[in-house]
Amino acid sequence: MSRDVIAPSILAADFAKLGEEVQRVENEVEMLHIDVMDGHFVPNISLGLPVIESLRAVTSLKFDCHLMMTNPEAYFDPLKAVGADLATVHIEVFPNPQGVARKAKAAGLEFGLAINPPTPYAAIDSFIELCDLVLIMSVHPGFGGQTFIDEVLSKVELTRKKVDSLGLSTDIEIDGGIGPENIRRAKDAGANVFVAGSSVFRADDPVAAVTAMRNAVEA
Ligand code: DX5
Ligand code: ZN
């Protein structure tokens, strides 16, 4: 079984002091979740290469780049160059993701595949072996601060079954509406990577918020 990973999503941070916000939690977490939105796949724009590059200079955390984009492939080499470690693309954009997975790996990136709430598990079932990480969206992508959609936990369970039956160590990430109150349920369904934006960076004490999630997940 893979280790538990808490990955704060910087989308909820104060972008005017992003470096400080990240450094505040850096020793408490294993990875940083970076949402890149193109204003096309999702109705929002967030941040891009220059921000990732600036962050790389202030932290050695693993960079988990969630690419909510219709043409992420064009950016694999530039993402690697600015310090990204993992690139996650959407199954809704790449229904047959073999080619895009190969390109991400050729660029030196780990490969992740994300699935939106309405998309059935069957869409990703044949592609689990391509993935270093499978991201189950627990909100509709595009915005932070939304309410966790319980129904997606059945997809986490199915993904966990598949990963274990294949004897893989693929990470299973849950993203959206995660906090101390529901992180344990996500773990029990089979997730081992927990993205948390608002519940960390909008908390009065982000370190205490991470600790509360860590305690809940390890209890
Ligand atoms: C939504 C993003 C999420 C978001 C999570 O499109 O993919 O990563 O930042 O934010 P919270 O934890 O606030 O739901
Ligand atoms: Zn995300």
Structure characterization notes:
The protein has 219 residues and is an alpha/beta fold. Helices cover 33% and strands 20% of the residues. The chain has nine helices and eight strands. The protein has an eight-stranded parallel sheet. Helix 7 (183-189) links the parallel strand 7 and strand 8. Helix 2 (49-56) packs parallel to helix 3 (76-82). The longest helix has 13 residues, at 153-165. D-xylitol-5-phosphate binds next to strand 2, strand 8 and helix 8.
Q: Gyration radius, to the nearest Å?
A: 16 Å
Helical residue percent band: 25-40%
Q: How many H/I helices?
A: 9
Order of helices and strands: EHEHEHEHEHEHEHEHH
Helix/strand/pairing category:
alpha/beta
Strand order of the largest sheet: 1-8-7-6-5-4-3-2
- Estimate the mean pLDDT confidence: 97
Estimate the strand proportion: 15-25%
Oligomer: single chain
Shape: globular
Largest sheet: 8 strands, parallel
Ends distance:
16 Å
> What's the count of strands?
8
Molecules bound to protein:
D-xylitol-5-phosphate, zinc ion
> Spans with pLDDT under 50 lasting ≥5 residues?
none
Summarize the structure.
The chain has about 220 residues and is an alpha/beta fold. Helices cover about 35% and strands about 20% of the residues.
Give the SSE map.
Blueprint: E1 5-8, H1 18-25, E2 31-37, H2 49-56, E3 62-68, H3 76-82, E4 86-90, H4 98-106, E5 110-115, H5 122-125, E6 133-137, H6 153-165, E7 171-175, H7 183-189, E8 193-196, H8 198-201, H9 206-218
Parallel strand pairs: 1-8, 2-3, 3-4, 4-5, 5-6, 6-7, 7-8
Helix pairs in contact: 2-3
Bound molecules: D-xylitol-5-phosphate (DX5) and zinc ion (ZN).
